Structure formats: structure tokens, C-alpha cells
Amino acid sequence: MNRLLARRASTCRALVSSIAALLCAVAALIAVSPSAWAADAPSEERLRVADPYLELHTGPGRGFPIFFTVARDEWVVVQLRDTDWYRVRTDGGKEGWVHRSQLSNTFTEAGVQKTFRDILIDDYLARRVQLGAAWGKFKTEPMLKLWTSYRFSETLSAEATVGQVQGLFSGTNIWHLNLVSEPLSDKRLSPFFAIGVGKFKNLPNSQLVGALPVNAKLSNASIGARYYLTDRFILRVDYTLYTAFVGDTRTGEFRAKTIGLAFFF
Q: What is the rounded CA–CA span in Å between residue 104 and residue 6?
């Protein structure tokens, strides 16, 4: 029994370490490469300065020095954005970075005050790829899983999942591909539904007499919800019904509940 418990604990620690390393790598990539997620602003949009002056920084952040100021009623051209910072060019050819709060008090060529939506929400609405990890229960056993998805329309995405269930007397590996429907994908709290197919492999402990491994096809149906937290983080909960086709006339049903965290790109 002690050997079984030790095997289970060792496998769970390895999975947790792998998931933690993967999430840390993604978080580091986001932290050190903000420009990788920059989205282009409207092409060559000209804005007239309404404040007494507009401060141009040498880079996209308050830690970069101010090297030039644009006077009231002068024009700037918005070139691109990096998070809350915009690179602009003056009529005199000076290029620098301006915070969104200052650009909010400018006017377009039509004489209308420029408005900026919450940029982080815009990034969330434009998300394409997600990468996440979750923990939960598969029947009564602990389950860990990783998934990645690609959204190819506003409400539909394809998702790939791998997971492991480490029971006391056996271990189970699963993988499946799902089609996910998210009818309220433009909301901060968004329910989703998914169906898919995959593989189910159960490996009993070698010390169990007469126990045989099971390698079966798998189908699943899920319901869950995503909640946009902040920056590029999404909280996700889901409930899944798995059906394993273990024989020509025999199936097994398993229910799983998980909660996890995802990054989007």
C-alpha cells in the first residue's frame, strides 16, 4: 500500500511541476515581450491636441524620459499601440510614445473628441489562442489536465486536451479534440458548451493480479464558463461527461469537474 501511495504522489508531483513550469514560461514570455502582443492602431489617424501640451516619451512607459512636447492645436499621427501606450508622429517628424490618458483629450479631423475603449477588453475580445491548466476530480480521483484552443470565429473554437488521473490502484491517461461553442464570447462571464472525441487509456498497477490495461475510444460532452480576470488571464470551470467505448457492446461513463487558469494570445 505504501508503494502505491508513493507512486501516486510521485506522479502527481511530476505533473504539477510540469504544469507550473509551462505556466511560468508563458507568464515570463508575456512579461518580457509586451510588444509581441501590440495591436496596430487605426492607420494614419490624425489627432489634434486639445491639452496645453502632449508629452512624448522615448518608449512605451512612464520610466522612459520625456524628450519632446507637442503644443495645443498641433496635429499628431497615431502609428501603433503597445498596451496603453501609442506611438505618434508630429507634423515636424518627431516620433514618440504617449499614454492613452493624454490622447483621450484630442480631436479627430472631423472635430469629434477621440474615444478609446478599454484596451485590455479589446485584447480579450480579439483573443485567438488559449493555453491553460486545470485541477479537479475524475469520478473521485484527482485529475490534472492541459488544454489549448484556437478560436476561428466569434462563437466557435477548436480545443485539444490532455489529462491524467492518478488513482490508488491505476492511472488513466486521456486526450481529446473538441468543438467548443461560446455564444456569449463578448461577455466577461461567458458560458460554453463542447463535444469531442479522443482516447482513453487505463493502466492498472502491475502488482494487481489479473488486472488488464484498457485502451478505448472516448467521447465527451462539456458545459462550463469562463471569466475574464485581468490582463491575459481567464478563470475557467467545467463539468464533463466522458464515455469510454471499452468493448463492442460495453461502455463506461465517467464524470469530471475541474477549475483552472488560462492565458490568451
A: 60
Among residues 123, 156, 182, the one where a domain terminates is: 123
What type of residue is 168? L
**Measured distance CA(97)–CA(88) in Å, rounded:** 6
Whole domain around residue 78: which residue ranges?
40-123
Supply the pTM of this predicted model.
Answer: 0.61
Q: What is the mean pLDDT of each run of 10 residues along the chain (265 residues)?
A: 51 52 50 43 75 92 92 91 86 91 84 69 80 93 94 93 85 93 89 95 71 83 92 92 83 92 90
Cα–Cα distances in angstroms (integers) from residue 211 to residues 10, 88, 204, 245, in the given order:
22, 69, 6, 18
Contact 106, 92 (CB under 8 A): no
